[in-house]
Amino acid sequence: MRGAMQDNEAKTADPRSLSDADWFARLEEIGDEAGYFQWLGRNHAAFFLDESPTLIVTFETVASIRQGQPGQLPLGYHVAKGRGWSHLCLIARTETWYRDPAVFAYFDRLVDDAFFEDFDRVVFWGNGMAGYAAAAFSVTAPDATVILGAPQATLDPRIAGWDPRYSEMRRTCFTDRYGFAPDMTEGAGPVYVIFDPEQNLDAMHAALFARPHVTLLPCRNLGRDVGEALDHMRILPSVLAAAATGAFDERLFRTFYRARRNYRPYLRNLLARLDQDGRALLAALLCRNVIGRLDAPKFKTRLEQLESQLAAAGERLPPLHPR
Fold it and tell me: What's the sign of the alpha-carbon dihedral 107, 109, 114, 115?
């Protein structure tokens, strides 16, 4: 008996040891204490933290929460809890794009209950598949600020037949309720779409969101998983918090985005692009800048190669200016 109690205590202390069923049970306990937890059919759940008239709404997946977030709690929970804000998280167990009648019915009930009218500020966030959903369901919360990471506009093959990545979703209906995500943002407040223009398919989806109330935020060389990159740069919570206080705009985002100077995947992507374009001098300058700030042996090795290449071509790097 004592051994069983110790096993349960260990599981509580380390959420990584939990099965998905036990993990959801843990979320349900937290939700019951702080707001509510509700299953929406078999593949989705709603987790609500009721704290204040500021609300962060996030669309997340079991994988993104369990693999990427501290304590295996939703990103939005971490942003909201420490600030005394409310949080609503729509959790998908798999890649469903949230196209589920149970999810539709849930948002219908929120509208019928005037749920969003109880909040002074509402922010919607989602990335990729979840970005599609954040845009699509933002129609239920007029004037909300909507921030999207590389969202799909639709997977309807008549509109996005050029995107071959999600063939398993071709039979899913994207033309009925909450369907074409860009149209669903028409009643929102400011909408921001963050994407890498080097990712052609993501850029094409982003272009479908172009509206007077939408600000496109291209982030070259950031990569395909925009949400993960912003989170690993540790700026995504700041972005959502700024939006929740009404301070977020393109200028502030660019200030936050300076963190890419120390984000190694971005630096590697940038170097690969310069190498691909044959811009040896710029690539060497990048490597020199990086190794001057970070412990980056691969960039040091590449700099030595580039210096030899430049010397063979009769070029050399300009001298460093003394600080």
Answer: negative
